Amino acid sequence: MNRLCWNAIWAWLPALLAPAVQAQDDCNDPAPWRVLTAAAEPAPAARAVLADRHRLLWAGAPADAEVWLLAAPQGGLRTPLGQAPQGVVQRWRLSVDRAVPAEAAQRLRYLGDGAWRALPAEAVATLPQQLRGETRVVRLDAEGRVTAAAGLQIAGALDDLYAAAESLDDLGAQPGPSESRWRLWAPTAQAVSLCLYRADAGPALAQHALRRDDATGSWQLALAGDARGRYYRYLVDVWTPGTGLVRQRVADPYAVSAGVDARRAYVSGLDEPAVTPLGWAADRAPASVRQATDMTVYELHLRDFSIGDSSVPRADRGRYTAFTHADSAGMRHLRTLARAGLTDVHLLPVFDHGAVPEAGCVTPTPRGGPADATQQAAVAASAARDCFNWGYDPVLFNAPEGSYSRRAADGASRLHEFRQMVMALHRAGLRVGMDVVYNHTVASGQHPNAVLDRVVPGYYHRLNADGVVERSTCCDNTATEHRMMGKLLVDSVLLWARAHHIDSFRFDLMGHQPRALMERLQQRLRAELPDRVIPLIGEGWNFGEVASGARFEQASQLSLNGSGIGSFNDRLRDAVRGGGAGDSGAALLQRAGWAFGLADRSADDAELQRAALWLRAGAAGSLRHYPLRQQDGSVREAQAVDYAGQPAGYASQPTEVVNYVENHDNQTLFDNGVMKLPPDTPREVRARAQLVALATVAFSQGVAYFHAGGELLRSKSLDRNSFDSGDWFNRIDWTGQRHVFGTGLPPAGDNQADWPAMRERLADTRIAPTPREIALVREGFLDLLRIRASTPLLRLAGADEVLQRVRVLPAEPALLAVQIDGRGRPDAQFGQLLLLVNASRTPRRFALPEGRWTNHPVLASVAGILHRGTDCLAGTGQGGLDLPAQSVLVCVAPR
């Protein structure tokens, strides 16, 4: 019998040999859930927190109150005020706990004062069973009547009871040639079954009961045969507070792929031919990064890359497979950047998300004038149904997004095409990074996309004191401080790195994760993939319910010192762009940046001096202890320089700093300049301001991070938040012949208050760049990449070396002047490196340090775009050097 026949038999064996435990009607029901037993009454606010299996904190409860824990395994609890509790199957009186461990008290300090209660031994012994049904606590008066009731927050108890689950290495589907296994962590479930399907649509092949493992709280199943290529979902019978006992029809949180809109998970061993492109086993990232500071990153949205590229076949535009067309305009552009020194392409979220319909999405084609509202109205009308979204709406963290696949319903195609993309970028000389979003999910509760919360209600999300899911990130915040949510983060990153050859990770709102968790991930990557350099960077913003260490030590800017994990440098960003990221109204127009008009103010202007200090700190890696010369000649460490109430110098090592002046958030760099510079500013002045801004990133110590299209003067027609603005406002033209500026007022939601000022600028025919200005910036940017790649002196990894070698020279605030000593370093290429940037629209004189200086080899041409024909030799001697307006000059001296 041939191999194909045997494979067919093995594929059918699970359905033939394993007993079906229930009628398959439950598997075939398209509804995401069904109530089996309704709750007797709405659940009270979950104000009581189980710190572990032994103790409970009820914030605000009087110390002398009589507190009882009530349980009803099948529901039916009623706790009306002023009456005795009803429907109680078991109850335990909780004594005051006078021996609360310091760790528990510290962990729950955000709840404030309250009475700690100890569970009696008999309650502790049966707690695993009680947490699978309905539970709550009440305060009773002397007659046994309810004076207050609260639901339970149970994550602390689950982490304590099922700590062994953290070491599980087989969650999800594990197919094999003779046996396939499934494991789901669902400690509060009363029953779990597997529904197995032949395809993404159609009736179930079989339904099988999983067996509970009491030690880990997980459920397992083993079936004879190879289930690869099959689809599945779970039926999870679980008590859901306020709803009742619910049969959830839900995909696997550990699914490695899925069908349309994650309704069914896909079984893959990730090694079968259907998901493995030719040459995948030999695929390797370019060896361009030996340390995080070697990274020069290009942040790119997958759909933006090709949706407007006519050189890509129509069926592949906006897809993973667009990257496989080596001769497309986009791939030619990326290869050019790679040859110049770009190392990493960072893709906005490409895991499975809930923001775009994976089948049947639409693409509007707006029409209208340069400054009218018709285009944004057309985009808004179809926003919920269109094919575009940034994708910060996780559903399945471990599965590729289906809307980027040519066949969203085919779980194998997603995997195969994703890997084709990775291979294509590697072959183009680029490493591949992922923007990952573990800080929130698209939904919680009973929403169809709430995969985690429907499997273990109340566990995976961070709750406030009333038991309500926190949403400070925008959406439903995950609690990565809980064991199994933290484990999911670590397991997921390791999967993408190991199985899909992802080379670096950028964490959205990383400050909402514990530092300890990020360091554990970092250690695992180094231990398990020792031959690869996989840097971790992220947004270290300090805000929300976790701000300033309210719940744990965060992975935020000021808390990451010594970790080697990079966070984004808003100091340099604000100095160069002007103002703050969220500016609107007058602040948006009037708070100029160093590259956009501020440098032309008087040298004693306080705002200019402040921006110059932030910029100079950034040039030295924003190190806490870097000595910065002040305007009055005094010297202060960068950590003593104020940035909006925080230290301008915040890092211990350059690897902890990610320098940038634009990314997907807020207006593009060009659009920022449109709002800051006077409308009559000549086009070339705008273009050169862009180059000056990009130079500050290329020349600063740390990780260099650029937004796709910045080198093409990319515009989003002034949109400050294009996450759901459709292809119309997010397009990129890789040929540099067309420009998006002036294609309508941006969407009303985040922009309408500024429409009057925006309308004036969008209608002004003097502003939109021509191909000439676009070419000027593109060629200048390539030179910046070449200069950064030319020497490790611009990519130092250690603080000691920065302090020893990098000297920010005294200069007027319109100039950035940095000297780097290469002596004693064999790979330095140069004995000395001198970086000069003039942001002013007028020439400025600068006295070069002593030595024989020549132009950097990249700038050898006397007609160069960046340095505008300036010759370093001309500055040797006492007279100094005249730096042209808005110019960038790099001088070198021999070793």
Automatic annotation (TrEMBL):
BP GO annotations: carbohydrate metabolic process
Q: Which SUPFAM superfamilies match?
A: (Trans)glycosidases, E set domains
Q: Which Pfam families match?
A: CBM_48 (PF02922), Pullul_strch_C (PF11852), Pullulanase_N2 (PF17967)
Q: Tell me which residues make up the Alpha-1,6-glucosidases pullulanase-type C-terminal domain.
A: 737-893
What GO molecular function terms would the record report? hydrolase activity, hydrolyzing O-glycosyl compounds
The reply on keyword Signal is yes
Signal sequence coordinates: 1-23
Q: Which keywords does UniProt give here?
A: Signal
Where does the source fall among the domains of life? Bacteria
What InterPro entries does the record tag this protein with? Answer: GH, Glyco_hydro_13_N, Ig-like_fold, Ig_E-set, Pullul_strch_C, Pullulanase_N2
What Gene3D superfamilies does UniProt report for this protein, alphabetically? Glycosidases, Immunoglobulins, Rab geranylgeranyltransferase alpha-subunit, insert domain
- In what residue span(s) does the Pullulanase N2 domain sit? 46-160
The chain positions of domain Glycoside hydrolase family 13 N-terminal read 171-255
Q: Which family does it belong to?
A: Belongs to the glycosyl hydrolase 13 family.
Protein name, entry field: DUF3372 domain-containing protein
- According to its UniProt entry, this protein's organism is Ideonella aquatica
